[in-house]
Amino acid sequence: MVSITSLALEVADAAAASRFYADAFGAPVPLQFRVSDAPTSGFRGFTISLTVAQPANVHALYDAAIAAGATALKPVAKSLWGHGGTFRAPDGAIWNIATSAKKDSAPGAREWEHVVLLLGVDDVAASKRFYTERGMTVGKSFGSYVDFDLPGSPVGFGLYKRRALAKSAGVPEDGSGSHRLVIAGDLGAATDPDGFTWEPVDASVSALTAPPRAAGSVVAGR
Known about the structure:
Blueprint: E1 4-11, H1 14-25, E2 31-35, E3 40-42, E4 46-51, H2 55-67, E5 71-79, E6 82-88, E7 94-99, E8 114-121, H3 124-132, E9 137-142, E10 145-149, E11 156-161, H4 162-169, E12 175-177, E13 181-185, E14 190-191, E15 197-200
Parallel strand pairs: 1-2, 4-7, 8-11, 13-15
Antiparallel strand pairs: 1-13, 3-12, 4-8, 5-6, 6-7, 9-10, 10-11, 14-15
Helix pairs in contact: 1-2
């Protein structure tokens, strides 16, 4: 069974990135940081989501991220699917904080339940086939969205049409250069049709990690 152990973000300053995420999220998330000056511009083709238990937690995490230096893309708002908002971290990664809950049941806290990586892909069917041929099991699939079933994985995983993912994040879809992302897990060494790179876990240099959490998916703005 395929599992994603952590996400390696390529950043200009690993210490600064570590400080930002500690200030924004409090508890560690399954991230690593690698220093890189690989050229990149515009939308990098992915978003990372923290799904949480209630709207108050969305606000707590989002507000802390903005206070720590993130750039607001979509302020937290209520919609038919729940509550959520997106921001760009100082390193350039786009984050989505979301919940399907409509009401609060406790005071707000910087607590998250799941981390989910969504890749924006040009050809959903081709990318879906790439991953299923390497042992991933589809949990949900409809239209331009695929959610893979990765039980016990610290990071959930899905595919979304690039244009739709950019729209949900609140940015133009245009982008070029490096994704500035390496996915560490037991898929093996691979590069998918959209240029996203996978590495075995032992190939990664960890700078910030977290204990495994069950994975699940929420797509903002669907």
